Each structure stands twice: as C-alpha cells, then as structure tokens.
Amino acid sequence: MDKQSPGPLGEFIRSHRERISPQQAGLPAGNRRRAKGLRREEVAQLVGISPTWLTWIEQGRTQSVSAATLSRLAEVLMLSRAERDYLFDLAGLKDPQEASLAANPEAQQALALAVDKIASPAYVLDTLWNVPACNAEAASLFHGWLDDGRDSHNLLQFMFQHPLARTLVDDWPTRARRMVAEFRAEISHHHDEAVTELLEQLRQDSEEFDALWRQQDVQGREGGERVFNHASRGQLRYQQLTLRLAHAPGLKLVMLL
C-alpha cells in the first residue's frame, strides 16, 4: 500500500466524502458499516475512475488528471461554488465550468443592472473579450462603436479592425501590443472552438494582430492610466480598474475612474 501523505488535496477530499451519507449519494447504507460517510472505493465508482486513481488524486499526483474528472468529483462530493474553486486550486487545474458561468444569462443580466449604476465608464468582458454589457458613459466614450446598435461587440476586433480605435486610443501601438499579450495570458486554459475561431479570424483579418500574436508575449491584465483622444470631448484620462466576479469568474468588470 502506498503510504505517501495525502497532503492538502487528499485531506480536503477525505473531509468532504466523510460528510456525505450513502443515501445522499444514492447508494445502499449496508449493514455493519464502519466507514464515516463514503468510502474511497464508493467515491471512485461514482466518479467513474479506479480507487487507485482516486488515491493518486488525493496524493496530489494530478499531472494526468483531466478537468472533467475533477469536475465529476466535485459533483459527487456535492461541493459548493467556493469549495469547487478551492478543489481546482489545490489540484492546480482550471475549472471548465468558468466558461459556462461567463455565458450565464442571469449573471450577465445582473451585471448589466449593476453596470448601469456606475457613474464612470464601465463595461463587462467575457472570456473572449466580448462586451455583453456597458453603461451609457462607456457608450459615450466609445461613441461610434459601443453605441452603434449592434448586439455583439468584441474588444480585440475593435482594437484591430475598427477605424475609431487608432484615433481614440492614445499611443495605439503600445496599447495594442499589451492587449494581445494580456489576452494570450487569459485564454491559456481555454482551448475551445470559440477561442480558436476568434484567433483565426483576427489573424486572418489583421496583419498587425497576427504579427503581435506570433511574438508570444504574455502579460497580466493590470490597471493604470488609460488616455483617450475623444472627437468632441478632447483628451480624457482615466485610471482603469478590472474586477473579477465571484459568482461568474469568467466575466470581468472594467471601470474607468
């Protein structure tokens, strides 16, 4: 038997499987049951993996564990949103549920109502940097783009394909380079069809984006001064603040203060 210490991940899994009764998991209670909660073998059966594989997960040997397997484990253990986030953090994996949360209409509707209450320009970005919601101040700042009546807006497509971007965004080359590096960092765990299609389209439609993408630069999304040269209001300076939403981690609230 492998005597390796379970570590934080194993202790967390064991603690939570001990809280679930067989009845809660849809299993017969059985007679002369000594185990508290669910046995490791029972959890493995419900997840669809071998007990040995579950033992490896508990020991932190997650190099070959898929996010789908960990997602199923979270469901079997009946973890809350915060507990699920903690499980994935301990395993060092990205939760695939984040993308579905970003597309949650209820979350987006709640955000749209909140954004309207902000006095300065504010908008929401999803995992593809689409803008599902913005307030009147943001529409005024990005006059000719966010207020053009279309249902769909993408920040990267604006930056590299919309004629307004090069005059509105001060020092466009620097901002464009940084934006591509930030996007590369953010989509590192989102290798899905939607990401692939967006990148292919951007690289095909914009030689500048393609050249920057091939540079392989990576930067974290940070705040700082943002300067705009507005056609009617002149030069405007803001401090950008980006917040990630606890109930919808795939969405970001961007405020220009």
UniProtKB/TrEMBL annotation:
Start and end residues of each HTH cro/C1-type domain: 33-84
Matches recorded under InterPro entries: Cro/C1-type_HTH (IPR001387), Lambda_DNA-bd_dom_sf (IPR010982), MLTR_LBD (IPR041413)
Pfam families: HTH_31, MLTR_LBD
Region (Disordered), start-end ranges: 1-34
Protein name (Swiss-Prot/TrEMBL): Helix-turn-helix transcriptional regulator
